[in-house]
Amino acid sequence: QQQVKQSPQSLIVQKGGISIINCAYENTAFDYFPWYQQFPGKGPALLIAIRPDVSEKKEGRFTISFNKSAKQFSLHIMDSQPGDSATYFCAASMMPDDKIIFGKGTRLHILP
Amino acid sequence: DTAVSQTPKYLVTQMGNDKSIKCEQNLGHDTMYWYKQDSKKFLKIMFSYNNKELIINETVPNRFSPKSPDKAHLNLHINSLELGDSAVYFCASSFPGLNSPLHFGNGTRLTVT
């Protein structure tokens, strides 16, 4: 119930291509779905986030698509660049304790 | 100025030793956390403190004891270190509630030999 399942575990994409990472959850009480990006040797940093009353959110080349009925959400990275190579974590949280549950991460490598 | 800073960055020690990791944030956040990231990159929450009060205490062995002297600091003390404690430990902070984003430090890589 508290899990967030993320796939794929690793992903290789050509420069300029679209990177897609998928996540699924069970607990319908989750009300906030952030994505974090982590570069080697650094802590994760918030990339983009969405609430379940919105089906899509776009920030630059990064888009979250949210399917509430399927309990799934995904991150799309358009025109992927080598600088996007990092580990990406989807996550979910709910009020009141705001505990963030992370997916297991996707290692993304963009080929130059 | 680093927003969330942890020391040390690397920690190599032998089994059975006791060690501490320090964390400080200058963002004015009320809530601080410790996360453990294993070799497979899985991030798991260990503790959270809100204004020096323990809020979340996941199923972490009693050998791990967080201490928050004030709301800007959250230290992690580990007794009787075991091989399985080897991981990267991240401190993070946020404002409470309202789904405030987490701000992470750069981690402390703990290696127990």
Describe this structure in a few short sentences.
The complex is a heterodimer of chains A (112) and B (113). Chain A is mostly beta strands and 112 residues long.
Structure, described:
The complex is a heterodimer of chains A (112) and B (113). Chain A is an all-beta fold. Chain A is 0% helix and 53% strand. Chain A has no helices and eleven strands. In chain A, the strands form two sheets. In chain A, strands 2, 4, 5, 9, 10 and 11 form a six-stranded mixed β-sheet that branches. In chain A, a hairpin with a 6-residue loop joins strand 4 and strand 5. The radius of gyration of chain A is 13 Å and the shape is globular. Chain A starts with a strand and ends with a strand. The mean pLDDT of chain A is 94. In chain B, the strands form two sheets. In chain B, strands 2, 4, 5, 6, 9, 10 and 11 form a seven-stranded mixed β-sheet that branches. The mean pLDDT of chain B is 92. Chain B has 113 residues and is mainly β. The relative contact order of chain B is 0.33. The chains are: A mainly beta (112), B mainly beta (113).
